[in-house]
Amino acid sequence: MSRLNCLYGLALLGAVSAVHADDAMIAWPGGWQIQPQPSMSKPGGGDARRERAVKNDAGGNPLMVVELTRTTLQPGHQVNLQAVLLEMRRAVQFNFSHGGYQSRCTPIHDSLLGDLPAVETTCEIQLDGGHVLTQTLVAAAQQSTAYSLSYAGSADGYEATEDEVMGIRRELKLLR
Questions:
Q1: Which CATH homologous superfamily contains domain 2-171?
Q2: Mean pLDDT for the chain overall
Q3: What percentage of the chain reaches a pLDDT higher than 70?
Q4: Contact yes or no for 30/115 (Cβ under 8 A)
């Protein structure tokens, strides 16, 4: 199982910051373990907050890891969501390739994150031809804030929790 835990570490990318219970971005359903993240300001101003939670199986093994990052944008900054998501996807594929894994990703397509228009892609990670991990990357932005969502799970864990994660995505109340 340590290989899968290592995969989760590689799979989730984003800026670091703290999340306190009173300013949580996600209302997590029961059974999710919230993992506090350290805080950090971005160079040149602005800040980023990251919130992560893990859903484990009955044996304590991770089924799915979900991470949402909210980044404050500089006034007037326009985000090219396609380019951001493409770079996120490249980073995931590059990191996995160094461990001997192969990845196949869906084309970037339109989606929603909460009620914000977004783009997304899903990557299937394989080792020796066997499906070991699935990861979805989502990016959205509005006037002063950009969001990225990443969720990854073992092949079985992803399938078992995908509906629950989609419910979390639909229920997001993102700052406008």
A1: Mog1/PsbP, alpha/beta/alpha sandwich (3.40.1000.10)
A2: 84
A3: 80
A4: no
Task: Note the maximum CA span of the chain.
Answer: 48
Task: Map out the domains of the chain as residue ranges.
Answer: 2-171
Distance CA 158, CA 58 (A): 15
What is the rounded distance in angstroms from the CA atom of residue 159 to the CA atom of residue 164? 10
Q: Which amino acid is at 138?
A: V
End-to-end CA distance of the chain: 40
Phi, psi of 64 (to 5 degrees): -150, 140
Structure confidence at residue 14 (pLDDT): 34
The model's pLDDT over 88-145, given as tens digits with 9 standing for 90+, comes to 999 999 999 999 999 999 999 999 999 999 999 999 999 999 999 999 999 999 988 9
List the Cα angle 167/58/100 in 5-degree steps.
80
pTM over 0.90: no
| 113/128 Cα distance (integer angstroms) | 33
Q: Look at the alpha carbons of 17, 19, 25, 28 in this order and tell me if their dihedral is positive or negative.
A: positive
Contact 23, 83 (CB under 8 A): no
pLDDT of residue 60: 93
The rounded radius of gyration (Å) of the Cα atoms in the chain is 16
